[in-house]
Design goal:
Elements: H1 6-12, H2 23-32, E1 41-48, E2 60-64, E3 75-78, H3 82-90, E4 94-96, H4 98-105, E5 113-116, H5 121-124, H6 128-131, H7 149-158, E6 160-164, E7 170-177, H8 182-198, E8 209-216, E9 222-223, H9 226-230
Helix pairs in contact: 3-7
Amino acid sequence: MPKRSKLYRARAEKLDRNIKYSFGDALNILKAMPVPKFDETVDLVFRLGTDPRQSDQNVRGAVSLPKGTGKKVRIAVIAEGDKIEQAKSAGADFAGMEDLIEKIKGGWLDFDVLIATPSAMSQVRTLGKVLGPKGLMPNPKTGTVTDQVDNAVKEAKAGRVEFRVDKGACVHVPVGKLSFKVEDIAENCKAVIQAVLRAKPSAFKGIYLLSCTLSATMSPGVKLDVNEIANMKG
């Protein structure tokens, strides 16, 4: 087993790893743990029953966190003409066409979200080997391929997060910062839970949600009552 930090061990003492806690209890336990010197990110991790190797069982989407992410989001937009100015006016950190494409080809990835217009996608797809491994490729399902670039930029700035299932059939989603009020983390969590539940592939048959844990950057995961989570469809 890996050697755990003193902080991790102190936090682990605050919970019983054999118990699946109610959503409310899990939030209170997380907030009551000893805190480090930086503001940690809070994450929800879902383990799904889907098979990521099957194309019709891919789970992917995006959701706007009602209380934001608590972090500054750097946004790049690939577009042409007046769409570039629309993106900049809406708050995009970078906006352009050929200039941005060439920079990305050269390995520049100094942004968190990439938005592109449909007409630009033929060129953006050539960046697949650079963007794909980083999860930065624009996709209509996540609202990052659109002609409404101003709206997309504003949503991303306000706290829109993307999620996708990994090879191990898990979905990791940030839901805010540990410094947030309990009720604000709860509101963000519920929005994410509902989005992941709605993203269940129509072709999938079986138990969709196998487990769910709530954790901070340097804390053990607090296991949640999966039945309670599954009923938060909204």
